[in-house]
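Example complex used in Figure S2.
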Amino acid sequence: MYLDGKDEAEVEAGRTVRETLISLNIKPELIALIVVDGEQKTKDYIIQDGDLVKVLAVIGGG
Amino acid sequence: MNGYGGSILRINLTTAKISKESTPTNVMRDFIGGRGFGAYYLFKEVPKGADPLGTENKLIISSGPMSGLMIPGAGKCDFTTKSPLTGGYASASMGGHFTAEMKYAGLDSIILEGISSKPVYLFIDNDKIELRDANELWGKGTITVEKHFKEVFGEEFQVAVIGPGGENLVSYACINHDFGRQAGRGGVGAVMGVKKLKAIVIHGTKSISVADNKTYRQAGKALYKACKEASFLPEWTRYGTTVVTSWCDEVGALPTRNFSAGSFEDGKNLYAPVMREKIVITDKGCFGCPSPCGKYSRSKKYGSNVEGPEYETIGLMGSNLGISDIEAVAQANLLADDLGIDTISAGNAIGWAMECYEKGIFTKDDTDGVDLKFGNVEATFDLIGKIARKEGLGALLAEGVKKASRKIGKGTEKFAIHVKGMEQSAYATHNATAMLLAYMTCDVGAHHNRSWAITYDLQVGRDLVVPEKVARVIWLQNFRPMFDVFGGCRLQWVELGIDRDLYIPALEAITGVHRTWEDFEKVGERIWNLTRLFWARENEGFGRNWDMPAPRFYEEAPKSGATKGQITKLEDVNLLLDMYYEQRGWTSDGLPTHERLSELNLSDLVV
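Predicted assembly (669 residues):
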């Protein structure tokens, strides 16, 4: 939906999830969930080299 | 009668008469099952002006065509009644396995009528149906009683049971099942309690016939396959509903200190990974569920074992009370479950009381000597017990915040966070107009599960007041509750995002009736209008003023958090209602027109 129709993007390590989303033109508040290695992280999490970061846009919920 | 149990079971608790009738085909056609049957029988058979806690009210328990079959989420049961909390329509949806067992016992609905002179429980084992003495069990907690029945009758028996909360007629008493599932809201447990029905114990071994066995199995498999392949499945299973806690905190939707704000400065301690690490032991699911969202938790600090807490309880018993300890929330959850009261309404009511105390409207004389400040965990545990037993301050809070704030006055009505008398669930709506409208117009009061629209608010603009938002709320209200009508769970569609068209061939193969989603949403609209009429019939002067939100959401912008300084304007609240009524085809005071009722094939029933 966001990355010009692609499912994935390669990003730099060392920035927070929030900064990374903004750099990809994704409004952070539209991302409901960030998971790294199966664990939920907040948007303050600093992305490490080799991390696979799974993000989920806000959905139906509740 | 493909896809159905085949019978409506009537239990008259006054006369102890037990009778069965064939499920009427016109009711199956127009109302399908589950919540649809509940709405039909409520409107038709509970007379105008009936006292919710009197002999004329009925509790209608219904399974649906999905229930008990090999479809994902086929485990939901509807409980419908006239609400002792609101005086209007109540419908509560209970997960677990009870609904499946109803189908295997050949039952589509159980209609509980009258009032027993002494405590009884209803025993159903296929066609052996009896009212039995429950004197020894009266006064006991729900967990103790369910354990007892499982030991006496065996694991295959399913149990629905009330606790002291229901026995004492707490306005928001619930019905418990499977040690952690509830028919939670609207006081359905109090109706069971006034009827002196402690529990229903049920077992069945009959088959369910389906119209096209081969297609049913294929369609069911396709649904399961879609669930298994959903990219969100691992995270949803890992965290369940608690997955939204951090997002709600981030966007100002997490109720904090009686909904005075939408972000909690200590919220991080309540987030899903913290909970998972600290207390969660395993995942727990309902009948036929491939995505078990229940979390079985154990608190070392309090020694509590509980299914939960869900997001709602984390919101209302955690951040809403200024409590940041997830173990304390789990313990509060357990106390409420065992006593049989709704955690949402109870947490909301306790939050109201805490604000009263902090504002000096309550003194220690009113709080039984307790320093009832936000964040007081022991006071919270204590009050849950007092509410269930209607002792001290608990007696006032047991009536719900609408009645309690009217009794106390002194401006407390301004921060009684309810709609139509039902306490608002765990989304703070200072600046989220679709979600605010959803709460205002929900058919049972301020509950979120009909039209969960807050993400839509964030997508299109939170303060936007446009017809598209209203249309979205209405669509969700016509569509989502259809799962309650089917007797199944909506969360596979909602959370895993599976294609809802996959349900169409399954339901057609089960019932033999071809229906599209457009057909189903028409049924949804029919039910919506019928229950709206029920409110109007039962409440003098019912109309627009009953749809108004808590004044907090248009008068008091939060002083902190993500929605600091943001508030909805009163003129926008009214504009939302204007657009809503217009799109629903209702009058400007919010009542269905004759034309609308005729279009929906409701004229005969209503006249």
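The helical segments of chain A are 17-23. Chain A touches chain B through 18 residues (CB under 8 Å).
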